[in-house]
């Protein structure tokens, strides 16, 4: 019988590498790698580095975000204020204080498009012991239902504090993981922080 006649008769051919019709083998199910986005806010300019006022052209949290993005091969989204915060440290703290007592900050230029991402790394400096209000403004506009949020912060001594619960209060339908806070001075001095960050990512189960 010719091949065409065999097909008409419902006989399957096994082509190497392709499952033949009627085969009972199921495709091997592979755990889908989560799609990760690293979103952050960071302010370049004058800042305290272990008690000394120093110009930081690249903010500490930006350096932290870039290490995560590089380690996980993930894209970055930078939260940028419509009106930048001043270069001057004292002017910035005065504005941050005003925004804190008003419970509202200046707007951000854009919010990240998080559709298509499963995990959002959420980074910012600690301002007055907490998440800056500009960052809260952006977080409150996102729909993170069913997604995972991983907070990361830089600070000058306060630590990460209650950041995870604050994130949860804005995104009640998201899973919020263990965050990591690192002293900003360590980034400003270009100290080797990568091993700590890599160990934290590994602990959470995120690897390239
Ligand atoms: C307005 C303002 C408020 C701050 N408040 C705190 C604070 O309460 N606790 C703290 O540990 N660090 C505080 N810092 C220090 C920053 O958290 C720290 O320098 C951080 O690494 C800056 O990150 P960035 O360079 O990404 O903006 C404050 C800095 C600024 C500008």
UniProtKB/TrEMBL annotation:
The keyword Flavoprotein applies. Pfam families: Flavodoxin_4. Residues 1-25 form the signal peptide. Residues 58-180 form the Flavodoxin-like domain. One of its GO terms (molecular function) is FMN binding. Keywords: Flavoprotein, FMN, Signal. The keyword DNA-binding does not apply. This is Flavodoxin. It comes from Mesosutterella multiformis. The lineage of its organism: Bacteria, Pseudomonadati, Pseudomonadota, Betaproteobacteria, Burkholderiales.
């Amino acid at each position: 019988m010719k091949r065409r006649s065999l097909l008409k008769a419902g006989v399957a051919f096994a082509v190497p590498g392709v499952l033949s019709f009627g085969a009972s083998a199921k495709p091997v199910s592979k755990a889908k790698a989560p799609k990760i986005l690293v979103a952050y806010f960071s302010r370049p300019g004058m800042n305290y580095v272990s008690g000394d006022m120093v110009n930081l052209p690249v903010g500490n949290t930006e350096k932290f975000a870039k290490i995560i993005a590089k380690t996980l091969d993930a894209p970055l989204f930078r939260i940028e204020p419509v009106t930048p915060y001043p270069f001057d440290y004292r002017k910035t703290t005065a504005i941050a204080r005003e925004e804190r007592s008003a419970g509202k900050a200046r707007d951000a230029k854009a919010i990240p498009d998080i559709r298509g991402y499963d995990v959002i790394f959420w980074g910012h400096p600690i301002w007055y012991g907490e998440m800056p209000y500009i960052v809260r403004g952006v977080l409150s506009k996102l729909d993170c239902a069913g997604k995972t949020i991983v907070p990361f912060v830089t600070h000058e001594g306060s630590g990460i504090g209650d950041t995870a619960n604050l994130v949860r209060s804005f995104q009640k339908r998201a899973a919020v993981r263990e965050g990591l806070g690192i002293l900003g001075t360590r980034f400003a001095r270009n100290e080797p922080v990568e091993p700590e960050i890599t160990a934290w990512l590994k602990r959470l189960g995120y690897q390239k």
